[in-house]
Design brief:
The chain contains five helices and four strands; from the N terminus they run αααβαββαβ. It has 155 residues and is an alpha+beta fold. A four-stranded antiparallel sheet has the order 2-3-1-4. A hairpin with a 6-residue loop joins β2 and β3. The longest helix has 13 residues.
């Protein structure tokens, strides 16, 4: 699929506020509402837009601690990876699971009420997962959300 400058403008605008209507977005970009809607629909149909997210305030939900875990599996193989991934997806405190290359096999983003709650999640849920070997934890102190650059590639 080839994206043009208008497609990239739509993607930039939606990445800032995905709740915008096609009409409002079209006015902002100088397009009609139907033309904007067709472009958004095409981007969704082609898999460029995978979905729309809702950002929640973890603190206001009583989740005051975020911890990034580096997990090194004790055994590796297709079954070990599948078993681990299936089991970790069932833990509600795990917000994201990333299979990575490097020092660890997986990177998890875990939320909890406080450090004591995180320790409970770590001991009872994460350390009991299939094939877990080494675990390294990094507590999030602050986070700045920045949109990465989304520009049309240089020709």
């Amino acid at each position: 699929m080839t994206l043009d400058d208008l497609d990239y403008a739509i993607l930039r605008a939606l990445s800032v506020d995905a709740t915008q209507s096609a009409g409002a977005l079209g006015r902002q970009l100088g397009l009609s509402q139907p033309a904007t809607w067709r472009r958004i629909r095409r981007l969704e149909d082609e898999g460029v837009i995978l979905g729309r997210r809702l950002d929640l305030d973890a603190e206001k939900l009583g989740l005051g601690v975020t911890v990034f875990l580096g997990i090194k599996l004790a055994t590796k193989g297709r079954l070990s990876l599948e078993d681990f991934e299936r089991a970790v997806r069932a833990i509600p405190e795990v917000q994201s699971v990333e299979h990575v290359l490097g020092l660890y096999d997986y990177r998890l983003r875990v939320v909890a009420r406080d450090i004591a709650d995180f320790e409970r999640v770590l001991r009872r849920r994460i350390m009991t997962l299939p094939a877990v070997g080494n675990v390294d934890a990094n507590v999030l102190l602050s986070e700045e959300r920045r949109l990465g650059p989304l520009a049309a590639p240089e020709s």
